[in-house]
Design goal:
Elements: H1 5-16, E1 25-29, H2 34-50, E2 53-60, H3 67-81, E3 84-89, H4 97-114, E4 119-121, H5 126-139, H6 143-146, E5 152-156, E6 159-162, H7 170-179, H8 196-211, H9 216-247, H10 256-259, E7 263-265, H11 266-270, H12 274-288, H13 295-302, E8 322-325, E9 328-331
Parallel strand pairs: 1-2, 1-4, 2-3, 4-6
Antiparallel strand pairs: 5-6, 7-9, 8-9
């Protein structure tokens, strides 16, 4: 086996970040594109050192005329490498990026659960991380959206989604595939500029690379990495503050226990920085709203921390109203 600097880098990354343990069962999502082929080749080559059991999963969205041929291509690769292969095909063509992503993760989770895989591994790269940061920044988001592509996150109970290539750019995966003559399946939808992510990939990133920073993808990916650690810290601090604001005053009134899950003590929150106040309110709204709370939702709830007594919000989606009652913000 040829041992390249990329092999060494991924080996170190997996070990230092504790992405996998030895002898685990890894389900690798393979589309047939350069990133996923680079990923499966690296994991195959590292398999002897780690003792993993590898499987390949392919999801056919049925949104291209050649999608079935694409699936057969990946299946043949799995046979060549003597790896278990799993195919999930959509009942109807999926035409939205968001819907496709949701269906894909559901399909991968079902395959993993049925076949006892502890990890689902995807080929997201530093380039994907940079594009996600720009995409969410343009749409409007806080730090959470800017660092949305993380190294690992739980998908379902007992199954972890892992992305080992987040420090590798797309140009590096392309070079790796060329070096090992891996048969890349070219996805025509990647050229379709009706998708915002493709415009970012094909127009915005090259413009930024040429006019601002030749290493813009790596620079943005590093920013996402820094933000990830800060978001984790702030989320934990906000959770502790929220629990304190909700638990303060237990036992003061006989009925406080029944009201408490929907009450926040303003005196506790007033001592905290605005960043934590906003995060507390976002966490509360995430519990009562079906969709992610907007900036406006969070701001109008945060404003009640210092608002006059009896102030209240207009209804949130679903009908809930927040009202100031003395030292308390009550959600009804």
């Amino acid at each position: 086996m040829v041992w390249t600097p990329l092999h060494a880098k991924i080996h170190r990354t997996i070990r230092s970040r504790h992405l996998f343990e030895r002898n685990e069962r890894l389900l690798v999502a393979v589309s047939g594109g350069q990133d996923s082929l680079c990923l499966i080749k690296l994991l195959l080559d590292l398999q002897s050192k780690w003792g993993w059991y590898l499987g390949i999963a392919h999801c056919d969205h049925r949104w291209r005329s050649d999608s079935q041929a694409n699936a057969h291509h990946v299946e043949n690769l799995a046979k060549t490498w003597d790896i278990s292969f799993y195919l999930e095909t959509a009942n109807e063509p999926i035409n939205s990026e968001a819907a496709a992503r949701d269906w894909r993760y559901q399909a991968l989770s079902a395959i993993a659960q049925t076949n006892n895989y502890q990890y689902i591994v995807t080929g997201h790269t530093a380039s994907d991380r940079a594009e996600t940061l720009l995409y969410n920044l343009i749409r409007g988001t806080g730090a959470d959206g800017l660092q949305a592509l993380t190294w690992q996150r739980p998908l379902t109970t007992g199954i972890m989604l892992v992305r080992p290539l987040l420090e590798i750019t797309r140009s590096q995966t392309e070079q790796f595939c060329q070096e090992f003559k891996l048969p890349i399946w070219e996805d025509s939808t990647n050229e379709d500029l009706q998708y915002a992510r493709n415009r970012i990939r094909q127009e915005l990133i090259p413009y930024l690379r040429e006019n601002f920073n030749p290493q813009v993808e790596s620079a943005l990916a590093q920013t996402a990495e820094l933000l990830q650690a800060e978001v984790e810290y702030l989320e934990k601090a906000a959770q502790e503050l929220r629990e304190k604001a909700m638990s303060w005053g237990i036992g003061d009134e006989e009925d406080s226990l029944t009201l408490l899950p929907l009450r926040l003590n303003r005196r506790v929150l007033q001592k905290a920085p605005l960043a934590l106040q906003r995060r507390v309110m976002r966490q509360v709204l995430q519990q009562i709203l079906t969709d992610a709370p907007s900036f406006e939702h969070i701001e109008k709830l945060t404003a009640l921390i210092i608002a006059p007594n009896r102030s209240q919000t207009d209804p949130f989606p679903g009908g809930a109203i927040a009202q100031v009652e003395g030292d308390w913000i009550c959600l009804k």
